[in-house]
Every structure is written in structure tokens, then in C-alpha cells.
Amino acid sequence: MDPRCLIFAILLGITSCASQPPGEFVPYYEVETRKPYDEVLAELEVAIAENNFRITGHSRVGKVIRDRGTKNFPEYDTIQFCNLTEAKTILLMSPQAIRHMPCNVVTYQFQGKTVIRSHLLPTDTDNKALNEFSVRMNQVLKKMVDFAAEE
């Protein structure tokens, strides 16, 4: 056997057996609705503002693909948002938490429904204060998704 293949096989075996470090799994919250897509986006913007976050980016991926010639391509959007006070709090607790920022929500159309999905913060780290912060923030994120989906 080629030594490179043997090394690759060994490394693949080691990495497939490695356990996932606490806090590395990024959970999500997802809701489906039959509410019109544009209403969902508008409701997300309201929910973000009402919870004292600011939109930092909005990518209308589906629209851009349609604009480039793929007719009838479904809607796909990502909205990024942040609250600098909350950002400061979490970063003082854990500089590594930057990988979870900004908050993000995606919306897309699938099988006649609008899907709304947001990444949640991990709550199983070795840092008790960070876990408590994450539980509180996850409740806010879920509330915003639910508000946008409510018919």
C-alpha cells in the first residue's frame, strides 16, 4: 500500500473516532409557516429591532440568482444582526464566542412553505456564565423566529 494512502487512512480513522469538544455543536431552531415570504421578512425586521438588535447584513441570494437569469428560483435570504452591548458581554466571557457572531437567521421557500431558521448559541460549554448567557439569548432568538412565523 502507498504510504500516503496508509497515513490518510489512519488520520481518517482517528478523526472519525474523535469526540466532539463541548460547545462545538451549533444547535439551531427552525419553524415553518405558510405566511407569505415577504411578510416573514418584514416581521423578522420588526422582531430584530424590537429586541434591540441592528441588522448588519441582508443577503437576498434567491433574488440575485433570479436576476442573473434563473427564472422561478425560490427565495433564499440571510439576515445578520447584532447588539453591541450583548456582543461585548459574551466576548468578555469568552473571546472564542466570536465564531457565533453576528446572530444569523435564514429564510427560504420549500415545498410551499417558508422556513425560518436561526443558529443558537451552545449551552454545554465549560463556562457556566457563558451557558447562562446563551440560554437567555437563545430564548430571544426563538421568540424572534416564532414572531416572524406567526400566522
Automatic annotation (TrEMBL):
Cross-referenced InterPro entries: DUF302 (IPR005180), TT1751-like_sf (IPR035923)
Record-linked CDD domains: DUF302 (cd14797)
Regions that span the bilayer: none
Domain DUF302: 65-116
Taxonomy, superkingdom: Bacteria
SUPFAM superfamilies, A to Z: TT1751-like
Keywords: Lipoprotein
Residues in the signal sequence: none
Protein name as it appears in the record: Putative lipoprotein
Gene source species: Methyloglobulus morosus KoM1
